[in-house]
Each structure stands twice: as structure tokens, then as C-alpha cells.
UniProtKB/TrEMBL annotation:
It comes from Ligilactobacillus ruminis. InterPro entries: DinB/YfiT-like (IPR034660), DUF1706 (IPR012550). It holds the Pfam family DUF1706. It comes from the Bacteria. This is Uncharacterized protein.
Amino acid sequence: MAKPKTKAELIEAATTNYENLLKMIANRTEEEKAGNMIFRATTRKKKHTGKGAGICATF
């Protein structure tokens, strides 16, 4: 999906993504909904902390 360029496109993309999220939740079983969620610790993002190319911090 292309990056939204206008406010209307942004609202449309957000609405579509939210509807897709609700559909995915509705398709889960009650057991899956009640179970624990496991998130990987390896999905950390790098935050640029300076103007230099190599200055980053991992969060």
C-alpha cells in the first residue's frame, strides 16, 4: 500500500487498517482471545539520536 499523501487518503487508510484489525480479532477463537500474547524482544527499533550517520540507540 502506498503512503497516504493527503488527509483524506490517511483517514481512508486508517479506517481500512482498523477494519482489517477488527476482522482478524473476530476470526480468532475464544481460547486464542483469552490466551496470553507473546511478543518477541527482537523487534526493537533504532532511534537516531544525532545528525551523524552512525549515531543510533536501540530501544
